[in-house]
Amino acid sequence: MSRIGQKPVIIPQGVQVNLKDHTVEVKGKLGSLTQHFHPIISIKKDGNSVIVERPDDSPQVRALHGLTRALIANMVTGVSDGFKKELMIEGVGFRGEVRGSTLVLSVGYSHQVEVQAPQGVSFAVDRSGRQITISGTDKTVVGQVAANVRKVRKPEPYKGKGIRYANEVVRRKAGKAGKVGTAK
């Protein structure tokens, strides 16, 4: 059995889960999410939990079992607590700001880069303009938007300038060996 797939998804207070024809709709205080799942996996609601079961032990079905349970758990967490990713901007003169639902980045180009927030995603920037928080209900959308923002200016290995995740460690390179100061 899949260790993840056999765990029931506990539905917290204030969250509604509706099942219909392998489509799961989850509603909570932060919004609602709907997703269609593979018909070979059976999804049942039992009181305040959702149970995911599989018919056999073939490799494809085993993979779908854990995936389905994880996606449903992410939907429940998203509408009740939400998801967020934090990014840091490093570099002299590099900063970000929010204008409406658009994130405007000044990261060393001759122009400012604007990133539109998709529906259900919001941006927040601290007072220094160096820490960006991306939040929303759908975990995959929040992660993809964070990856797209990071892609605007990836951190470079020599000075570490660029946009990085808050917990990301950038490996630094030494640079040219001639500058180290070897004595002759």
Question: Would you write up a description of this structure?
Answer:
The protein is α+β, with helices and mostly antiparallel strands. It has two domains: 9-80, Outer Surface Protein A, domain 3 (Alpha-Beta Complex); 83-165, Ribosomal protein L6 (Outer Surface Protein A, domain 3). It is built from two helices and 13 strands, in the order ββββββαββββββαβ. It has a four-stranded antiparallel beta sheet with strand order 11-12-7-13, with helices on one face. It is elongated. It starts with 8 loop residues before the first strand and ends in a 19-residue tail after the last strand. The mean pLDDT is 92.
Précis, in short:
The protein contains two helices and 13 strands, in the order ββββββαββββββαβ. It has 184 residues and is an alpha+beta fold.
